[in-house]
Amino acid sequence: MSPLASTFQAIFTKIISVALPTSCIVCETFQNKTLCSACVQGITYQGLFNYECCKQCNIALDSTELIHQHCRQCEIEPPNYDETHCLDCYTGALQTALHQLKYQKRLTFAHGLANTWNQFLGDQLQYTDASYLLPVPLSTQKLCSRGFNQSWELARRIQCGPHITKLPNALRRHHHRQHQASGNRDMRSRAIQGMFYIEEKYRPTIENQTIIVFDDVMTSGATLNEIAGVLKDNGASRVINWVLLRTPRPAQLRAQHV
Ligand SMILES: [Zn+2]
Ligand SMILES: [Zn+2]
């Protein structure tokens, strides 16, 4: 977006926020911000960023893993990606808002969720040393049935440094009939092998570059691991995941910051 267009968008957004009050995306309190102050406070104190997490996959560490700063899974079988940053747990305050976007097709929630990302992680991540940001794609068939790619609708609205170019069409996905949301880690890994590819004209672009991959949800990490493998096979030097919500391990013992 050009600086002029971005200035106009900022002015327009300001006018709209005053003229048309909205409701909080978490508690639905009527006001003029997308996240009310009580919910900001809730995420501030309960968000995933309050916990010591694995540097590579951002799962909250248990007490025996703290010393290594990596979870056991990443120690035993290091994933293809190098870092992961998540806003919050999937089981936290933002899950319903994400479902409103993804399953009820309420695109306004993309704006609210991206604002929340910017509020909590925008400053911290804007200096990330990367050149490109790629959303996790949907297959053409899935895109037609949903009407939009939720990862791109979030990614296009999040702030990142001006040195990072967002490329919505560089990474592509084949259609696969098998449903992705079930099965264990190995089953999911096998199911997505060969599912992603880089559009040919973008192959020289990503060579020797650090790439950010943006996804709405990270569960087993199998999808992001497969994508990072494809990016590195095509010459990317580092891959960093930015993820809205992270599924926690079951019955997890987490070590909170003090
Ligand atoms: Zn609220
Ligand atoms: Zn890990």
Number of helices: 10
Proportion of helical residues: 25-40%
Q: Average pLDDT, to the nearest integer? A: 89
* Count of β-strands: 9
Give the quaternary arrangement of the chains: single chain
Question: How would you explain this protein's 3D organization?
Answer:
With 258 residues, this protein is α/β, with parallel strands linked by helices. The chain has one domain. It has 10 helices and 9 strands. It has helices at 3-19, 37-46, 72-76, 95-102, 108-125, 140-146, 150-155, 185-191, 203-206, 222-233; strands spanning 22-23, 30-31, 83-89, 132-135, 165-166, 171-173, 196-198, 210-218, 238-246. Strands 3-9-8-4-5 form a 5-stranded parallel sheet. A two-stranded antiparallel sheet has the order 1-2. The chain has a two-stranded antiparallel ribbon with strand order 6-7. Strand 1 and strand 2 form a beta hairpin. Helix 4 (95-102) packs across helix 5. The longest helix is centred in the middle third of the chain and has 18 residues, at 108-125. The chain is globular. Mean pLDDT is 89; it is low at 252-258. One zinc ion is lined by residues 24, 26-27, 29, 36, 38-39.
Write the layout of secondary structure elements.
Elements: H1 3-19, E1 22-23, E2 30-31, H2 37-46, H3 72-76, E3 83-89, H4 95-102, H5 108-125, E4 132-135, H6 140-146, H7 150-155, E5 165-166, E6 171-173, H8 185-191, E7 196-198, H9 203-206, E8 210-218, H10 222-233, E9 238-246
